[in-house]
Amino acid sequence: MFDSLKERLESIFSGLRGRGKLTEEDVQQALREIRRALLEADVNYKVVKDLVEKIRVRAVGADVLESIMPARQVSAVVYEEIARIMGEGSRGIDISPQPPTLVMMVGLQGGGKTTSSAKLAKKLSKSHKPMLVACDLRRPAAVDQLRVLAGQAGVAFFGPEASETDVVALSQRALAYAASHLIDVLVFDTAGRLAVDEEMMAELDRMKAALDPHEILLVVDAMSGQEALNVAEAFNNRLGVTGVVLSKLDGDARGGAALAVLAATGVPVKFAGVGEGLDAIEQFDPRRMAERIMGMGDMAGLVEKIKETATETDIRQMAQSFKKQRFTMDDLLAQFAQVEKMGPLDKVMEMLPGAVASKMKDLPPEALDDKRLLRMKAIIQSMTKAERRDPAIIKGSRRRRIAEGSGTTVQMVNQLLKQFEQMSELWKRFGKMGKKRSLLGGLG
Ligand code: GDP
């Protein structure tokens, strides 16, 4: 799912990263490409317009363009807005504090309503005692299908009698049965039609009035694209839907519906069907979905980390030190402090985009060991000011003194000095690159 949108966005952002420092025109150009990619993923036109505008307002601001990592900042803004447009947080079924919880499943025939009802009942059966109620009195095949699925899911089933014609009476009988069998959630698989029609809506309306359900979940087929939004609008206007189940998101869907349902109808997507099997249902999580769309690692985690730790000033200072001719032990100490602030090194590494992480992989593995970091800090802290400025003066007796002062060994001090030399070499090279273009901007 979202494969082509993901690919498009990845190529847009890698183009931005390649540019280092960004101008407003660079961002405008990227926004035009993002707009086109969203439209091609079948996201509703109005929704795209709105979304791109929100991104524009945040992304062309001076604080983004002049930041050290502009491309990363722009992709973080796009990620956040895509997540926001799909809703805040993920919500499952609203379980009533006073059982039974009543869930009405509605939708067009073929949309995946019966399958989704069984999937949900199976999911609920882990912590509840649900029952599936077959309410399509016109299509005996639909009743049989639900009975079979209930058997496969291992949950209770309630169906109409042969001559039953009134869906409200059937629902009442189901409620009475539930009360005497300790059933605490009822999932009503209502009748669907091939298209939205008055007779179906009137029947659903009567059921709603009789049951006063806690949830009315509309099942729409993600593969139906824009049509899914029209269907959602029609059902919501008439019935007041509490959530959408987006079925067949595993299929060939371009995924546009997932992005647009909430914005276009005001109804949140609560679940996504991702296959034919009864376990193939996921609680819909806007942030995780946005991560998938952006093809990122743990983007949410990284955005939080950047906000929490490195302030803009920190990063600026770090970039400044790259440009200095001479690298001192104090610079190394400052680097260690920065790295420590970000948390365990291997965790930070996991969150970095591929390009940066692969550069870091060239470092020896022990460079990423947190305990080693502490020891190295202690060693530097045992040096005098003069020694920190000019480590070349640290010879035999000074090495012994520093080792004692830091509770380490001469061998470790030697190691640090060697590493310092390697680092200052690297620094010199980075400094030269930095003159051509902003180094960290290039990494962003
Ligand atoms: P209903 O008429 O709305 O009750 O639709 P059904 O539940 O009978 O589903 C119609 C078809 O879609 C069936 O073949 C299902 O197996 C299939 N289907 C339903 N949900 C999904 C899904 O999430 N992924 C896939 N791949 N197929 C699904």
TrEMBL record:
Protein name: Signal recognition particle protein
Occurrences of domain SRP54-type proteins GTP-binding (ranges): 268-281
GO biological process: SRP-dependent cotranslational protein targeting to membrane
PROSITE patterns: SRP54
Keywords (A to Z) from UniProt: Cytoplasm, GTP-binding, Hydrolase, Nucleotide-binding, Ribonucleoprotein, RNA-binding, Signal recognition particle
Entry EC no(s): 3.6.5.4
Record-linked SUPFAM superfamilies: P-loop containing nucleoside triphosphate hydrolases, Signal peptide-binding domain
Annotated NCBIfam families: ffh (TIGR00959)
Positions with a binding annotation for GTP: 107-114, 189-193, 247-250
Nucleus as UniProt keyword: no
Entry GO CC: signal recognition particle
Quaternary context: Part of the signal recognition particle protein translocation system, which is composed of SRP and FtsY.
